[in-house]
Specification:
Blueprint: H1 2-13, H2 17-36, E1 40-46, E2 51-56, E3 63-70, E4 78-83, E5 86-91, H3 98-111, E6 118-125, E7 136-137, H4 140-148, H5 157-170, E8 175-180, H6 190-193, H7 199-205, H8 214-228, E9 237-242, E10 246-252, E11 255-259, H9 281-288, H10 294-303, H11 306-311, H12 317-325, H13 329-348, E12 358-362, H14 363-368, H15 370-378, H16 389-394, E13 401-402, E14 411-413, H17 418-432
Parallel strand pairs: 1-6, 6-8, 9-12, 12-14
Antiparallel strand pairs: 1-2, 2-3, 3-4, 4-5, 7-8, 9-10, 10-11, 13-14
Helix pairs in contact: 1-2, 3-5, 8-17, 12-13, 13-15
The structure holds adenosine monophosphate (AMP).
Adenosine monophosphate binds at residues 243-244, 272, 316-318, 321, 363-365, 368-369.
């Protein structure tokens, strides 16, 4: 609408009839183009050495382009773009940083005539603390708060801010919105987020459980409610996001009431390289008896444990499954521990629910590994789950659907789409603010 009124004012100022007629034709074309081109949201997910992006129609989730800049801050830095299924990789120039990546992205977007269609930018921000439980318009004050919250997410929030600031430089005319990974779990009750620690650590220092992967749990929960044809506010699910990072969430009436990741994304089930829950005394033992420094313990628990640590082979589930088939015992142990811990966590969430509409698998492993899904479901027969092995084998590689036996409670595989949630929520916020 803005474009129409602006053009009408311009028209009033035009003096000669001929020029006026030419302008009307020109403006007609402009207006038609404006309304034919669909508005797109640029979604940015910035890590310390990577920057993922997607240019998306928030209504349909259709991507005009996507890609990733990787190995940033090193001389291997590169950026890859995918448009219409075709991939193109470019080396980045010095200083190989996030700004360089954004400049290349803008060049690419402009070359593909997509720049004008971008209406706003949605940023994934990992930690929103207790303050942010909604999509939030980014202002200098919000950036300050994201910076303050870096003490709770030192690896993620500073990187997210770098992405926001690099993007602001080139898209200064557009609004930027933050979508927080922790937001969906802000509905957890106190009993689920308070640790068994002195209460003042929560009051004075914010030490509590926050949960992560919120946009993913939100997306699959919505999808499951439409598959079930039941209003989201009446749906109870357990969702298992199993990727390199893993989290299980209990959803009551469409809202998160508990989740396995906690103060940081280290708590909970065994993951690709993260240990998940351990007895905290192991840390004292490592430091006092084995001479580890705190930095070494941090690296051990976050980067050297999980599937990688147990198997001694890889954090990649595909590689471990190959080794399992080849008869490798440590690969088998890694998969057994992984699945048993996940099944135990799912079962423990029966304490959070009065009834259960179904279980959802998502994430790289949840969407693709029939082996892992089958092992987990087999351990949950007491809760009424049983896999249909044929469906379980079929529903992989981007397919969505039920994998349960007819005698079982419902169990779905739902490919997640965090970018779509970010694009949609960014668009909603703009509409709600009348922009
Ligand atoms: P994500 O972090 O969601 O990208 O998931 C990464 C994980 O998904 C890695 O452990 C991959 O090995 C795993 N994954 C992807 N495809 C498959 C597959 N076909 N079978 C087993 N695991 C897979």
């Amino acid at each position: 609408m803005k474009i129409l009124s602006k053009n009408l004012i311009k028209l009033r100022d035009i003096k000669t009839f001929k020029f006026k007629k030419a302008m009307i034709n020109y403006q007609h074309v402009e207006i038609v183009n404006h309304f034919m081109k669909k508005p797109l949201i640029l979604v940015i997910n910035c890590g310390s050495s990577s920057l993922k992006f997607s240019l998306m129609d928030p209504k349909t989730g259709e991507e005009s382009l996507n890609g990733i800049a990787q190995c940033l801050l090193s001389d291997n830095a590169n950026i890859s773009f995918k448009v219409n299924g075709e991939k193109q990789v470019l080396a980045l120039l010095p200083p190989f940083d996030h700004n360089t990546a954004i400049v290349e992205l803008v060049n690419f977007i402009t070359k593909n005539n997509l720049f004008e269609q971008i209406t706003a930018i949605g940023h994934r921000v990992v930690h929103g603390g207790e303050k942010y439980h909604q999509p939030t318009l980014i202002t200098p004050q919000v950036k300050n708060e994201i910076a303050k919250l870096a003490k709770l997410a030192p690896l993620h929030n500073p990187a997210n801010l770098v992405g926001i600031e690099a993007t602001e430089k080139v898209f200064s005319h557009l609004l930027q919105v933050a979508i927080f990974d922790t937001a969906f779990h802000q509905t957890m009750p106190e009993k689920a987020y308070i640790y068994g620690l002195p209460y003042n650590l929560y009051q004075e220092h914010g030490i509590r459980r926050y949960g992560f992967h919120g946009t993913s749990h939100y997306f699959v929960t919505q999808r499951a409610s439409s598959l079930l044809q039941k209003p989201l506010e009446q749906c109870n699910f357990i969702s298992a996001h199993l990727g390199n990072g893993c989290s299980i969430s209990a959803i009551v009436n469409g809202k998160s009431v508990d989740t396995s990741l906690g103060f940081t994304p280290l708590e909970g089930v065994v993951m690709g390289t993260r240990s998940g829950d351990i007895d905290p005394s192991i840390i004292f033992y490592l430091v006092e008896q084995l001479g580890y420094s705190l930095d070494q313990v941090n690296t051990l628990l976050n980067k050297e444990s999980g599937l990688l640590g147990i198997s001694g082979i890889s954090n990649d589930c595909r590689t471990i499954e190959e080794q399992l088939l080849a008869g490798n015992k440590r690969a088998k142990l890694a998969i057994d521990v992984f699945c048993y811990r996940i099944a135990k966590k799912i079962a423990s969430f029966s304490a959070s629910l009065d009834n259960l509409d179904g279980l959802i698998f998502t994430g790289g492993i949840g969407e693709n590994s029939n082996t892992i899904r089958s092992l987990i479901l087999n351990q949950l027969s007491l809760l009424g789950f049983k896999a249909n092995e044929q469906l379980n084998e079929e529903i992989r590689f981007g397919k969505q659907g039920n994998i349960n036996d007819t005698t079982s409670r419902p169990c779905w595989v739902i490919p997640t789409n965090e970018e779509w949630v970010i694009a949609e929520q960014t668009q909603h916020l703009l509409i709600n603010k009348g922009m």
